[in-house]
């Protein structure tokens, strides 16, 4: 085991201290600050070195609905509204490498870029790239819409601010600010498409990898978001600006139950991006778009009613598969289907299954139910190849395989598709 040594980077935002364990890791770098329900803003540069060796806090949240598939997060960072931090993993502080910026999933309700699941060390080392993993505001903290309280899409604005931080500071971590690939999964993938559709964030992105984005049609219109916001504020029972975090999370839980009762088969998150038209314009970024073969099996785990469970499972094609193929065709993107499944155990090629092959550590994914009885050595055999495809795309705009490919269990792992 490599002994960790301290290392200091000197970005324009101010010096930060990380660790060197073969890869340089800065786990808790602040990129912004925000008052509750207000837009985020950059922080002034600092002169004194700031300790970034520990993971930055993640947004306050309830448990994930996918814990039965992924397992509980291990060594979870603390939760705090002061969560606008990111993590950087880089082979060296010199040079000018491609940069991959990770936007985590979790239905806009849970997760965090500084979770060990999303450690970018393997990706950085294997591909000689810089990996940035972003925390952003979630749930009511990031996506409440209520007149006079919150305008909505604050989490999306946080992501834009993080990309601005990357543009201004990543050269000090050995990254090329002119070659930034945003890659996201699930809610992070839909966020990626949203960032490519917004004039303020589009110039900050050269390439994008869209992993398991739900159909952009799930984006709420403002009228529906306001209805949900009114119910939430009533559930708080007072001024949400002055309420405690626990009160806000309790009201969020009540709102989730109210929303789910109206359609127990729905996978649409009640809080999320609002009122945005996903439309990419010229010049188009380099794009890679894909999905897993059995996405919605993940949302059906443990659902007791057989009819509801099947209705959820049946949404894989209309919610994930068809929209991914349509988007790839419309924009001339590389497309993939992740069809690998555990030899024993697991739940098939479900939502989130590709993540351990790209990000995280052996400990963070230990005993993850969705991996079944798969050994970490087997995960690494396929993962090493996938990480090279992802990082080659970030470097050149092409992952290597032809425009449509299927990642499966065959020895060569890659099967061409029409």
TrEMBL record:
It comes from the Bacteria. Pfam families: COesterase. This is Carboxylic ester hydrolase. Transmembrane segments: none annotated. Belongs to the type-B carboxylesterase/lipase family. Residues 22-237 form the Carboxylesterase type B domain. It is an enzyme of class 3 (hydrolase). Its EC number is 3.1.1.-. Residues 396-418 are annotated as: Disordered. It comes from Amycolatopsis halotolerans.
């Amino acid at each position: 085991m490599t002994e960790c040594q301290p290392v200091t980077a000197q970005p324009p935002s101010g010096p930060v201290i990380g660790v060197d364990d073969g890869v340089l890791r800065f786990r808790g770098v602040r990129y912004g600050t925000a008052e509750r329900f207000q837009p985020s803003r950059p922080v002034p540069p600092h002169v004194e070195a700031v300790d970034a060796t520990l993971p930055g806090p993640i947004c306050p949240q309830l448990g994930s609905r996918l814990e039965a598939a992924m397992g509980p997060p291990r060594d979870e960072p603390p939760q705090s509204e002061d969560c606008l931090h990111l993590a950087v993993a880089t082979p060296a502080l010199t040079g000018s490498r491609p940069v991959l910026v990770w936007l985590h999933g979790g239905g806009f309700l849970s997760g965090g870029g500084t979770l060990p699941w999303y450690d970018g060390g393997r990706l950085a080392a294997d591909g000689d790239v810089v990996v940035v993993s972003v925390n952003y505001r979630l749930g009511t903290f990031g996506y409440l819409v209520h007149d006079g309280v919150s305008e909505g899409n604050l989490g999306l604005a946080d992501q834009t601010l993080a990309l601005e931080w990357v543009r201004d500071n990543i050269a000090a971590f050995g990254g090329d600010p002119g070659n930034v690939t945003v890659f996201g999964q699930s809610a992070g993938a839909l966020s990626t498409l949203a960032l490519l559709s917004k004039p303020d964030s589009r110039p900050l992105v050269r390439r994008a990898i869209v992993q398991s984005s739900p159909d952009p049609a799930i984006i709420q219109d403002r009228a529906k978001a306001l209805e949900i916001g009114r119910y939430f504020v009533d559930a708080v029972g007072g001024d949400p600006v002055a309420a405690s975090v626990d009160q806000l999370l309790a009201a969020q839980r009540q709102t989730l139950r109210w929303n789910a009762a109206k359609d127990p088969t729905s996978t649409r998150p009640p809080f999320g991006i609002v009122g945005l038209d996903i439309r990419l314009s010229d010049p188009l970024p380099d794009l890679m778009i894909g999905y897993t073969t059995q996405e919605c099996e993940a949302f059906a785990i443990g659902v007791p009613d057989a009819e509801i469970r099947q209705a959820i499972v049946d949404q894989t094609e209309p919610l994930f598969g068809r929209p991914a193929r349509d988007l790839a065709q419309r924009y001339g993107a590389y497309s993939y289907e992740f069809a690998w499944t555990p030899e024993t155990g697991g739940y098939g090629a479900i939502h989130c299954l590709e993540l351990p092959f790209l990000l995280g550590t052996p400990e963070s994914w230990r005993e993850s139910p969705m991996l079944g009885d798969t050994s970490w050595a087997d995960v690494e055999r396929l993962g090493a190849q996938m990480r090279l495809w992802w990082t080659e795309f970030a470097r050149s705009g092409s992952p290597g395989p032809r425009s449509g490919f299927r990642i499966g269990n065959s020895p060569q792992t890659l099967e061409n598709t029409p």
